[in-house]
Amino acid sequence: MDVDFFNALYDRIIHVDPNILREIEMHGSRYNDTQVIIEVKEQELKKQKRALDKLYESYEEDMITKQVFLERKAV
Question: Is the pTM higher than 0.70?
Answer without folding.
Answer: no
